[in-house]
Amino acid sequence: MSDEEKILTTTADDEGIRLDVSLVRAFPELSRSQLKRLILAGNVNHAGKTITDPAYRVKQEQTFTLIVPHSEPLDLEPENINLDIYYEDDDLIVVNKPAGLVVHPGAGTPNGTLVNGLLNHCGTSLSGIGGIKRPGIVHRLDKDTSGLIVAAKNDRSHRCLSSQFEQRSVERAYHALAWGSPKPPSGQIEERIGRHPYKRKKMAVVSENVGKFALTRFRTLKRYGLRVFKAECRLATGRTHQIRVHLAHIGHPLVGDPVYGRTTEARLSGIPDSDIELITTCRRQALHAVTLGFVHPRSGLEMKFSSEFPEELRNLESIFERTKSFS
């Protein structure tokens, strides 16, 4: 099957708006995120030149050629992975992901992912917009973050859910255990996030002209002395490692986070050795997606799901509760 060529000739209504917005208006069967990827990949031409900036401002009576590569056959193998399914219908599926499960295949993780499990459970009904490595995937959680995630079963649902994420209308709340005791106990962190300048596998708070806008709102749910607090974090944006980076930036890294925080001797002062072992061998950051709310793409009904803090994190809470007088 050959690639598909689509032609956009702009009108006065397009004057001054972004290229990706003009394209999604002209070709609503494609999501804005998909069109952004195509632009960045060099699949849009104008007047013999390749346009690779999604924010390129168009003028009326310009002609753009968009090349949409043909769909490649799915090369992933379904795997019998136990899924904690919270909700499912013909359009979408909501799963409570455990820590340790990667969402989709990538470098170093060719299989054993949530996608492989979804393929086994859903068959060929997952949407294809996410690409051959990410069928059905609308958003992601880090490997060692647990909690609620929604996947789309058809392209219409994928486009609708992706639009809600882009418009920041999806309700997402996380519970976290973090070191220290924040002052004030609630607030918002508005700092741009981008790749760490020296450690390319890490993200970091970066300068104004680098990275992407990110906003995290947090409030303290409970304090365990001055050692640890439990926070509810709500995302206005969805940047990579956002909560982990933002809380670490204000001096309160997540408990168990091997990338953005360290379990120092001072933080463990007064805790019995047996409990210290439980803390230091908990191989995950203490972060769980507890709430997920969105509008159903077909019915238009508001849907909201909640998930309890997992057992291994409740065990950590018990330790910090018992030892809070030593902090």
Give a brief outline of the structure.
By secondary structure, the chain is α+β, with helices and mostly antiparallel strands.
Describe the model:
The protein is of the alpha+beta class. 20% of the residues lie in helices and 26% in strands. A hairpin with a 2-residue loop joins β2 (44-46) and β3 (49-50). α1 crosses α2. It is globular. The N and C termini lie far apart (65 Å).
What structural keywords apply?
single chain; about 325 residues; alpha+beta; Structural Genomics Hypothetical 15.5 Kd Protein In mrcA-pckA Intergenic Region, Chain A; Pseudouridine synthase; 3 domains; 9-stranded mixed β-sheet; 4-stranded antiparallel β-sheet; 7 helices; about 25% strand; globular
| CATH architecture field of the largest domain | 2-Layer Sandwich
CATH topology (level 3) name of the largest domain: Pseudouridine synthase
Q: What is the tally of beta strands?
A: 15
Give the % helix: 10-25%
Q: Secondary-structure blueprint of this entry?
A:
Elements: E1 4-9, H1 19-26, H2 32-40, E2 44-46, E3 49-50, E4 63-68, E5 85-88, E6 92-97, H3 114-122, E7 146-152, H4 155-166, E8 171-179, E9 186-190, E10 193-195, E11 203-205, E12 215-224, E13 228-235, H5 242-249, H6 273-280, E14 287-295, E15 302-306, H7 311-322
Parallel strand pairs: 7-14
Antiparallel strand pairs: 1-4, 2-3, 2-4, 5-6, 6-7, 8-13, 8-14, 9-12, 10-11, 12-13, 14-15
